[in-house]
Backbone:
């Protein structure tokens, strides 16, 4: 047999094998795996989920609180403290693989408010780190002279954090600086009058 006939025979065999397997299940099973980052504090705390799946083309996240997402790298906020079973299902065609992890949510809130407005608005930094970096600052301009506000009320500064003791820093428009201490308790709203 000459080289041309041998070459054509090899091409014919490969062609038949390719046609035989074309469109058939490749046997690859997607791998589902993820990790997450939980910030210790913020104005609107969101958990960042890192998708580490392999051989998958679509995803379904179940955050364990009745919410879900098909995003590759979702962010999610929990409304209540608790332990949540987060499930990620990875899909490849008709195949799927699922992994899960438990996320513990244990936050409290603090609301900073004014009881008088003799010097205009007040800028608040909820901890040393935010004061040093000038992030997470908030202007407070609404006065609550009689009754302290609830967490989330307008004109106040509501901040979410893990339980613990903190120092806040403030400044008025007249460049008056002040500090104060506060304690955050899980699942509670601490009310801090700053001026």
Residues:
């Amino acid at each position: 047999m000459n080289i041309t006939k041998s070459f054509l025979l090899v091409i014919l065999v490969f062609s038949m094998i390719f046609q035989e397997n074309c469109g058939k299940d490749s046997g690859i099973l997607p791998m589902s795996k993820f990790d997450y980052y939980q910030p210790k504090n913020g104005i609107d705390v969101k958990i960042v989920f890192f998708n580490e799946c392999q051989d998958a083309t679509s995803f379904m996240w179940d955050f364990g609180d009745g919410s879900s997402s098909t995003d590759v790298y979702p962010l999610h906020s929990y409304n209540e403290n608790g332990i949540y079973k987060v499930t990620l299902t990875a899909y490849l065609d008709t195949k799927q693989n699922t992994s899960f992890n438990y996320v513990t949510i244990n936050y409290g809130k603090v609301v900073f408010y004014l009881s008088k407005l003799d010097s205009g608005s007040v800028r608040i930094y909820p901890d040393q780190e935010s004061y040093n970096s000038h992030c997470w600052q908030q202007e407070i301009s609404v006065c609550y002279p009689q009754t302290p506000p609830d967490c989330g009320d307008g004109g106040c500064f509501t901040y979410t954090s893990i339980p613990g003791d903190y120092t806040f820093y403030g400044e008025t428009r007249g460049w008056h600086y002040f500090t104060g201490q506060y304690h955050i308790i899980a699942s509670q709203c601490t009310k801090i009058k700053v001026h």
In short: The radius of gyration is 28 Å. Confidence is low (pLDDT under 50) at residues 1-25.
